[in-house]
Amino acid sequence: MSALRLSYFNLKLSLRPCFTFCAVFPKDFEMEKEFFIQLWMANGLVTSRGNLQMEHVGNEVWNELYQRSFFQEIKSDLVGNITFKMHDLVHDLAKSVIGEECMAFEAESLANLSSRVHHISCFDTKRKFDYNMIPFKKVESLRTFLSLDVLLSQPFLIPLRALATSSFQLSSLKNLIHLRLLVLCDSDITTLPASICKLQKLQTLRIESCNFFSSFPKQFKKLQDLRHLMIEDCPSLKSTPFRIGELTSLQTLTNFMVGSKTGFGLAELHKLQLGGKLYIKGLENVSNEDDAREANLIGKKDLNRLYLSWGDSRVSGVHAKRVLEALEPQSGIKHFGVEGYGGTDFPHWMKNTSILKGLVRIILSDCKNCRQLPPFGKLPCLNILFVSGMNDLKYIDDDMYEPATEKAFTSLKKMTLRDLPNLERVLEVEGVEMLPQLLKLHIRNVPKLTLPPLPSVKSFYAEGGNEELLKSIVDNSNLKSLHISKFARLMELPGTFELGTFSALEELRIEYCDEMESLSDKLLQGLSSLQKLLVASCSRFKSLSDCMRSHLTCLKTLYISDCPQFVFPHNMNNLTSLIVSGVDEKVLESLEGIPSLQSLSLQNFLSLTALPDCLGTMTSLQELYIIGFPKLSSLPDNFQQLTNLMELSIVDCPKLEKRCKRGIGEDWHKIAHIPEFYLESDKKPTFCDNIISAWKKQFWDPCQSSYSGWSYFDSMVKDEDK
């Protein structure tokens, strides 16, 4: 600690409070660099210097602290968004220097609040604060309060510079006249109160995961000091602030919704020196290309992510092409996406590889009339490509290539192709080496597509294609994850008769393949690295080979769902996690043969009235989920023998839930020893979500996720690493 303390005293005086402020977050907390700099700004720890904006000064401060090893576990996405952590010893140093001025709490420890505290974070959202019990009244000058649960009417909040809250009662915001940073997260607000316009010093406003938030007050333009307006996960948003172009200090505007009325057009963007991300929706409301040109996107040098969306497919293709031509950005753009574009091809600037040479991510969604794409295969930095919803597209890139000397898509690591009914190949020119670094390939409803062998691919998802498509992964010794869905005629996997084809495969998922009856012994012999196996909604699937015990030596997790003819294999001694849903009830009698099982989920046994007694003998079991047993009325008498069981969840089992009521149910004595016990009737707010997300993390494909009220394009814009 003495050496670390010496490093601290070697810092410039201006850097020391920036470092010690880090103690506002708990140990091992992953901090977002951009947000952290905004907190510094809000508290006056960094200010403008000469011609340097305070954001640039903050960036310099952060870089110096990083170079001096005060930060670690640095992560950066494709456009340079950075997260970081502090080593526990470094956190201890910050805490020892700043003392009681900066504190990260759990709710129950707020009773020990010091009168000298200036900065508080509390991330324990399980319990509500009782402000009458907690001695906030003695706090003299609170500057930062980061907690979702906060009553804004409390007088101790008046000196605040930075606030994060989920409150929907925002009328008291007008009293926080010193506020410079406001985060509204997971709030039920539908609009901001007009009183927010009195916060004349507000620099940063972040509105996140507010599902019902739809509009801003008309006088929002009075916030002349506002520099960053960031909106994420607000699917009900209908408009951006009126005459937002008058907020001349604005540097970040993540969302702009074009309206048809005065004060909501693209001309509002003309003078704003925006950077980072800009998502423009409602381009169907743009009258002509001159109006589009007023946005002056080409003049916004710090813009690195641009997404454009048309919400009305009735806009003529010629009009849409002219508008898109006028929305040319500067050449430093890194992420670019278009949704609902009605043209048959794209404008000239998109075909100019010198303009797009820095692109790392492209999303093209529901451009239904499009027949030709720009030569994306020649972009040297392109890392992620998503193409969806183009009915007449035959090739991803139909540009000319010299097979002997040119390669295509040399840097691409992830490619997603969806709903392209006439796509035949990636390149029109055959014989060209392509996709040498491709790691993830996701294909859905592209029935005519054929691919060359892709030996670098590690993750492959294929849904609703032809069986020829699957040949691209044969002899792939790098493939680790394979997901096959809706291949109606598929009877066996490609490479079934070629040992070693899938020797590196760790996860295999097969869904809606109604002709597949089993996985052959020959195939299983080649799956020596398999750890997770899912078979779901395969009506004829009957069995795994009885030899799987000797072949699948690494298998830890098995998921069998809606396979009514399935017969459980014997002696699966290595299995630690099992999910069974919608199969014959006799399968449950086979559980006795899995002594190593630690996690078990039993789902949707609609007529079962009793669980097998062998369940009570599975002494290695640590987690048990019982879901969808409407006739199940009791637990086995030997259930108390499950002494290692740490978590039990019972969902959609009305009779059993009644018997398992905490402290009073007839079966309570059988489960009273289990530390974590959940009933659906307990109505815990995140109970079912936690169960579902736990299984989805293991088995669900992220590309199938959806966001209520959003298009798929919206979800892709949000999840910028996908």
Tell me the strand percentage band: 15-25%
Structural class: alpha/beta
What's the end-to-end separation, in Å? 41 Å
Radius of gyration: 29 Å
- Give the overall shape, derived from the CA principal axes: globular
Mean pLDDT, as a whole number?
87
Our count of helices gives 14
Unreliable parts: 683-709
Domain R13L1/DRL21-like LRR repeat region: 266-390
InterPro entries: LRR_dom_sf (IPR032675), LRR_R13L1-DRL21 (IPR056789), WH-like_DNA-bd_sf (IPR036388), WHD_DRP (IPR058922)
Protein name: Putative leucine-rich repeat domain, L domain-containing protein
Keywords: Plant defense, Repeat
Structure, described:
- With 722 residues, the protein is α/β, with parallel strands linked by helices.
- Among the domains are: 100 residues, Winged helix-like DNA-binding domain superfamily/Winged helix DNA-binding domain (Arc Repressor Mutant, subunit A), CATH 1.10.10; 107 residues.
- It is 15% helix and 21% strand.
- The protein has an 18-stranded parallel β-sheet. An eight-stranded parallel β-sheet has the order 4-5-6-7-8-9-10-11, with helices on one face. A three-stranded antiparallel β-sheet has the order 1-3-2.
- Strand 13, helix 6 and strand 14 form a beta-alpha-beta unit.
- Helix 3 packs across helix 4.
- The longest helix is centred in the N-terminal third of the chain and has 14 residues.
- It is globular, with a radius of gyration of 29 Å.
- About 4% of the residues have low confidence.
